[in-house]
Amino acid sequence: MPVTVKFRVGIDDTHHTHLDAGRIAAAEGAAAVTLHGRTAAQRYSGSADWSQIARLVDHMAGTGVPVLGNGDIFRATDAADMMEQTGCDGVVVGRGCLGRPWLFAELSAQLQGRPVPAEPTLGEVTSVIMRHAELLAEHDGEKHASRDIRKHVAWYLRGFPAGGEMRRQLSTINSLDDLRRVLDPVRGSTAKAVDADGARGRQGSPGRVSLPHNWLDDPYEDFVRVTEDVEDAANNGG
Ligand SMILES: Cc1cc2nc3c(=O)[nH]c(=O)nc-3n(C[C@H](O)[C@H](O)[C@H](O)COP(=O)(O)O)c2cc1C
Question: Which of 50, 62, 88, 154 maximizes the CB count within 10 A of its CB?
Fold first, then answer.
């Protein structure tokens, strides 16, 4: 089973750990590594620093372990730009596919030099929503699926002229029938979304990172202590 490893740039701007993390992952046999170009302290604020992905690519050269870039890919051209600017081997998408599963077809076309498919119409999106809800229901049961799909519907409809009343009703559906009924009036709509391929999902502000006690103290101090413990244990036959 190939195991991949994903990490951020580090704890904060003064504690970057990604280069060490990449090397350690390679030494431990990781099949690929992914870097999200933000520190933990940044959470989702600001923008991902793709230059750190480029640094990791350089640092991993010669290991044979592919480096995948991650952070702020919301449209097909973003993936191509990231690969060109950083030299990474591939990309990983997080928030960009929330309510936009067709993004992967767009990325694939863009990266293979094929024409990028047209964005779906509102009517087409209603079919995708129903299919998504049916699959969720198969997986989790209809009751749970009907609640879970509500947040996806909000993402799916972003930028579409769905109207406040329809959105309100969609946020309270309790069954697949409810969903079908509320979406029915726009099933044939050919409307296109406005600005649906911009940033989506969590953004927010930076925050303090909770770390284990003494985490940032001199790491070699602990190393010595651990070594002594191990020697003691060995001497005692433990
Ligand atoms: C719904 C959702 C679930 C996620 N789950 C995980 C996870 O389990 N493990 C992880 O390392 N990152 C997870 N992430 C973070 C993403 O993998 C990614 O690093 C981050 O969202 C930045 O990429 P983006 O700008 O494409 O969103 C998740 C993100 C989203 C939106």
Answer: 88
190 CA → ligand 1 middle, Å: 31
Burial 123-135 (b: 16+ CB within 10 A, else e): ebbbebbbebbee
164-222: pLDDT as tens digits: 999 999 999 999 999 999 999 999 999 999 988 888 888 889 998 999 888 888 767 65
Q: Give the Å distance between the CA of 182 and the centre of ligand 1.
A: 30
Instruction: Output the pTM of the full model.
Output: 0.88
Distance 186 CA to ligand 1 centre (A): 31
Q: Which atom of ligand 1 is nearest to the CA of 95?
A: 27
For ligand 1, mutation pick of 70, 78, 151, 200 (most atoms within 8 Å of CB): 70
Of ligand 1's listed atoms, the one at least distance from the Cα of 6 is 11
